[in-house]
Write a structure and sequence with these properties.
Length: about 400
C-alpha cells in the first residue's frame, strides 16, 4: 500500500501536469479578447468554462478507466463509437493539438532563443530540439522538467502580480459587454484544455481513481485562480488601445507590457512568465501527442520508436510557425472554438453516453447529473463551435 506521503506526491505530480498543460500559451491570449468584455463579464465566462472543463475532464476519466491503460483517444473512441468515431476523433485530435503546438512554437521559440541572443528561423529549430529531446527521453523526463518549470512559472506569476498590481486602475475594470464575453469563450476553451493528458495520466498514476480525480480538480482550479488574477492585472493595468494593438499584430499579451509605466522589470517578468507557461504546455501537449500518434500507428512509445513519434509531433508545427510567425492568436482561437469544443466537450459526452447506456459500463465514481447533464454539456459545446464559426465568417 502507498503511504500518505506517496499519495500526496502523486496528486501533486498529477495536479502540476494538468495545471502546466492548461496554463500555457492560451493564457497569453485571454486578456486580449476578454478585455473587450470587461473584467466582470470575463470573470463570469472564465468560471463557466472552468466548470465545463472540470466536468468533461471527469467524464473522460470515467471513460478511460473502463478501458486498458495502454489505450489512448483513438482506441477508446473505436471501442465505444465505432470506426467512424475513431476517424473523426483522430482528425479533430490532430487538428487541435497541431494548432496548439503551432501557437506554442510561434510564441515560445522567440522567447526561449532570445535568452541566448538568437533570432529568426534558428530560434524555432533550437526550441524544437531542446524540448523535443525532453519528450523523446520519456514520461519521467517530462514530469521532472514540467514540475520544475511549473514552480518557476508560479513564482514568476506571483512576482508579476505583485509588481503590476500597483498599476491597476479601478475605472478600467468597470466596462461590461456580455456579447464580447461570449466571443471570448473559444480562446478560454483552449486555455483550460488538458484532456489530452488524461489517458496518459491514467497509466502514469496507476489508474487510482481517488488520485486522478483530485489531480483533475486541483489541476483545473489552480489555472482558474491564475486566470482571474491575470485578467484583473492586464485589463486593469493596460489601456484598451495597447491591447488592441497587440491583438492586431498577433503577439502575446506580454508584449503589451513592454512600455507599461516605463518599468522594465514588469516586461522582463512577463517574458519569463510567458516562456515558462508555454514550455509547460508544450510538454503536456507533446506528451499526449506521442501517445496518440503511437496508438494510431500501433508503435512502441520507447527507444528509437519514441524518437520517431517525437519528430512527428514537433516537425509540422515547426514548419507552420516558420511560414507564419504571427499565427499565435488565430491558431489558439481556432483550436479552442473547433478542436477543444469537440475533443474536450462533445467527445467525452459521447463516450460516457455510449459506455453508460449502450455498453452498460459501471464506474467507481460516476459523474453525477445523468442524461440531463450530458445533454447540457453537448449543447454548450455546439454553441461554442457556432460562436467561433460566426467569428471567422463575419468578424
Amino acid at each position: 500500500m502507498k503511504t500518505h506521503g506517496q499519495q500526496f506526491a502523486r496528486v501533486l505530480s498529477g495536479t502540476f501536469l494538468i495545471a502546466g498543460t492548461s496554463v500555457g500559451a492560451g493564457m497569453l491570449g485571454i486578456p486580449l479578447v476578454t478585455s473587450k468584455a470587461g473584467f466582470w463579464p470575463a470573470m463570469g465566462a472564465t468560471i463557466v468554462v472552468w466548470l465545463f472543463m472540470l466536468l468533461t475532464g471527469l467524464l473522460l476519466l470515467e471513460a478511460c478507466l473502463w478501458r486498458p491503460s495502454s489505450e489512448s483517444f483513438l482506441s477508446i473512441s473505436r471501442h465505444y463509437l465505432g470506426h467512424g468515431g475513431r476517424v473523426v476523433t483522430g482528425i479533430f485530435f490532430a487538428f487541435l493539438y497541431y494548432c496548439i503546438m503551432i501557437a506554442y512554437f510561434a510564441a515560445g521559440a522567440p522567447l526561449f532563443a532570445g535568452l541566448f541572443g538568437i533570432e529568426g528561423p534558428l530560434s524555432y529549430l533550437i526550441f524544437g530540439l531542446v524540448f523535443g529531446a525532453v519528450v523523446a527521453i520519456g514520461p519521467k523526463s517530462i514530469d521532472r522538467v514540467n514540475f520544475i518549470l511549473t514552480i518557476a512559472m508560479c513564482l514568476t506569476w506571483v512576482l508579476l502580480i505583485g509588481e503590476g498590481s500597483r498599476l491597476v486602475r479601478i475605472e478600467r475594470l468597470s466596462h461590461a459587454s456580455i456579447t464580447h464575453a461570449l466571443f471570448a469563450t473559444p480562446i478560454l476553451f483552449s486555455a483550460f484544455g488538458y484532456h489530452n493528458v488524461v489517458p496518459s495520466l491514467c497509466s502514469y498514476l496507476g489508474r487510482n481513481v481517488f488520485t486522478l480525480r483530485l489531480s483533475i480538480f486541483f489541476g483545473t482550479t489552480l489555472p482558474l485562480l491564475v486566470y482571474i488574477l491575470w485578467q484583473w492585472l492586464i485589463i486593469g493595468a493596460l489601456s484598451p488601445e495597447a491591447l488592441e494593438q497587440t491583438l492586431s499584430v498577433g503577439a502575446p499579451v506580454t508584449d503589451a507590457l513592454r512600455d507599461v509605466a516605463h518599468r522594465p522589470i514588469i516586461h522582463q517578468l512577463g517574458r519569463f512568465f510567458a516562456l515558462f507557461a508555454i514550455i509547460t504546455s508544450t510538454l503536456g501537449v507533446s506528451f499526449s501527442m506521442v501517445d496518440f500518434i503511437g496508438d494510431g500507428l500501433k508503435a512502441r512509445r520507447t527507444g528509437t520508436s519514441r524518437i520517431g513519434l517525437t519528430l512527428l509531433t514537433f516537425g509540422p508545427p515547426f514548419v507552420f510557425a516558420l511560414i507564419n510567425p504571427a499565427i499565435f492568436d488565430r491558431a489558439l482561437s481556432i483550436a479552442g472554438g473547433f478542436g477543444e469544443s469537440f475533443l474536450n466537450g462533445i467527445l467525452p459526452v459521447a463516450l460516457v453516453w455510449a459506455g453508460r447506456y449502450n455498453y452498460k459500463e459501471l464506474s467507481q465514481h460516476p459523474v453525477a447529473g445523468g442524461k440531463p447533464l450530458l445533454v447540457l454539456l453537448f449543447l454548450i459545446s455546439v454553441a461554442v463551435i457556432c460562436i467561433e464559426a460566426y467569428h471567422l465568417m463575419f468578424i
